[in-house]
Write a structure and sequence with these properties.
Bound molecules: iron/sulfur cluster
CATH topology of the largest domain: TIM Barrel
CATH architecture of the largest domain: Alpha-Beta Barrel
Structural class: alpha/beta
CATH class of the largest domain: Alpha Beta
Strand order of the largest sheet: 8-7-6-5-4-3-10-9
Helix content: 40-55%
Length: 351
């Protein structure tokens, strides 16, 4: 049963309550390289990213935020560690949200200044806790970044914000392992009503990271936990956005853009299906519309699956059947299959 969280507003995006789970990502450029950063933000936004976070590591990054903000329309989040003055500067530059980590900015007087500035500008804060950067006092007590250590860090941070009467907060708390992260979020979900930002830290490259994120986020989202997600991958950040929508789509929580269904291929297949599926997948990236496209290897399950999709191909020997909204409309030679599929998609996309 989903426990509704309070709503936090980031620019024009709402996190929490009954709002759709928000997809976010993070740029991988140096923020001060304004042109590259803006280009990456625009690519992320085109892929469906609804909030973009940027690393702010020095004064040049802070200065760049103002120009970047003017060049893009998606709300921006500044990610600041160690130097609270960068956090204050980022808020002054007009960011829509700030992420801080109690493990890297822990002095109360510094946190107090951030809270007051965030209050003045009505900027929400994410308290982002990572197993790799827990406060020293906690690590001394628990020796390792255990789920208990992470939960105590969250509790201590929330106490500080409560003492200062500040509740414009989103929380994230990531463990070393996927299972730890799930345990931590389940505990925090019971403990408070602040929206939760889900992510699996240091998940890995696209394949491993995608799987680990799908497992961790999938468990939590299916339990009704989580209000915004970021899939962390050692890869182009656009892949993070695509992966996030795949996870949300698999759970029936959000749909964004086309869905490609393709069969795994077996000994019945008479065509080289993988390049066909990859070509279709690549060309589908240009489309924003939600549609199901099936690429199937043979006539056993192929026609049935292709009929369920909006557009589909079921391949035979050197030839494929093309389906539109469940009906076979033509047979096409293998070489022309992909081009013809997209001609049919373009002709019928708004139907
Ligand atoms: S659709 Fe045909 S080729 Fe593909 S896995 Fe199923 S039986 Fe095998």
């Amino acid at each position: 049963m989903r426990k509704l969280k309070r709503v936090v507003t980031v620019g024009d995006v709402k996190i929490g309550g009954n709002n759709p789970i928000v997809v976010q990502s993070m740029t991988k450029t140096k923020t001060r390289q304004i042109k590259r950063t803006v280009n990456q933000i625009r690519r992320l936004q085109k892929a469906g990213c609804e909030l973009v976070r940027l690393a702010v590591v020095n004064k040049d990054d802070v200065s760049a935020l103002g120009r970047i903000k003017k060049s893009v329309s998606v709300p921006l989040i500044a990610d600041v560690h160690f130097d609270y003055r960068l956090a204050l500067g980022a808020i002054d530059m007009g960011v829509d949200k700030l992420r801080i980590n109690p493990g890297t900015i822990s002095e109360i007087r510094k946190i107090e200044q951030i809270i007051e500035k965030a209050r003045e500008k009505n900027v929400p804060l994410r308290i982002g806790i990572n197993s790799g950067s827990l406060p020293k006092v906690i690590l001394k007590k628990y020796h390792h970044p255990t789920p208990e250590a992470i939960i105590e860090t969250v509790t201590n941070a929330l106490d500080i914000f409560a003492q200062h009467n500040f509740d414009n907060i989103v929380i994230s708390a990531k463990g070393v392992e996927v299972k730890d992260t799930v345990d931590v979020y389940e505990a925090i979900d019971k403990q408070c009503d602040f929206p939760l930002h889900l992510g699996i830290t240091e998940a890995g490259t696209s394949f491993r990271g995608g799987i680990r994120s799908a497992v961790g986020l999938g468990i939590l989202l299916n339990e009704g936990i989580g209000d915004t997600v970021r899939v962390s991958l050692t890869a182009d950040p656009v892949k993070e956005v695509i992966a996030a929508y795949e996870i949300l789509g698999a759970l029936g929580l959000r749909q964004h853009g086309p869905i490609l269904m393709s069969c795994p291929v077996c000994g019945r297949c008479e065509v080289n299906l993988e390049p066909i599926a990859r070509a279709v997948e690549k060309r589908l990236q240009k489309y924003d519309n939600f549609m199901k496209v099936a690429v199937m290897g043979c006539v056993v399950n192929g026609p049935g699956e292709a009929r369920e999709a909006d557009f589909g191909i079921a391949c035979g020997k050197g030839v494929g059947a093309l389906f539109l909204k469940g009906k076979e409309i033509m047979r096409v030679k293998e070489k022309k299959l992909v081009d013809t599929l997209f001609e049919v998609i373009d002709e019928n996309i708004n139907y």
